[in-house]
Design the sequence.
């Protein structure tokens, strides 16, 4: 049991320390860490992220509390939550203490300029991961997609050879795609709160998926 506590603590310290950008930017890192230990499957992780949108607190903290509690009860939840929170606590204290020095240093702007596109890439990776588990019927066959885009696909040799993709088991779930589009429109156009988006999507999913 001590070994499990240590694994929980170190894993979530790693997530807390390397999870720059927060929010969806840490989804890929968090999923890889949990899957690497066999603590959560990809489908279970997708469900966890969806539920986390309906509960208070950051995704990483919610995930740490849930995983710790699932594996080792209340004490495990405390250990995992403490592990994911302590890096941010320490870093915020350091930034507050040396904010003026950091803010004036010429490297600060350069570092932030690099982190922004990196964060965008991490979020894009998370979007693709969730798309594979919801909108698409299977993993995205990237190798075939690259071949199609480069004109090396088998078959007709022109355009997007859908047979090449269909042969890989890849497809689109129409109901899930409709829900995803409506959710995106609801947030971007009408500024509907994510909690309501999740609830309404769940209701639509009962009838469409």
Sequence:
């Amino acid at each position: 049991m001590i070994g499990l506590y240590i694994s929980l603590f170190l894993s979530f310290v790693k997530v807390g320390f390397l999870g720059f950008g927060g929010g969806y930017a840490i989804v890929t890192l968090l999923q890889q860490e949990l899957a690497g230990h066999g603590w959560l499957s990809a489908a279970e992780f997708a469900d966890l992220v969806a539920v986390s949108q309906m509960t208070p607190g950051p995704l990483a903290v919610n995930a740490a509390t849930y995983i710790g509690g699932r594996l080792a009860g209340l004490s495990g939840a405390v250990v995992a939550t403490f592990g994911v929170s302590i890096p941010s606590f320490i870093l915020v204290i350091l930034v507050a203490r040396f904010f003026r020095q950091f803010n004036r240093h010429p490297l600060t702007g350069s570092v932030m300029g690099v982190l922004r596109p990196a964060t965008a890439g991490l979020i894009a990776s998370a979007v693709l991961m969730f798309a594979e588990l919801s909108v698409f019927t299977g993993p995205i066959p990237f190798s075939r997609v690259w071949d199609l885009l480069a004109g090396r696909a088998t078959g007709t040799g022109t355009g997007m050879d859908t047979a090449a993709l269909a042969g890989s088991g890849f497809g689109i779930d129409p109901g899930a795609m409709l829900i995803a589009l409506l959710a995106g429109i609801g947030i971007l156009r009408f500024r509907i709160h994510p909690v309501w988006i999740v609830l309404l999507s769940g209701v639509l999913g009962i009838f469409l998926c």
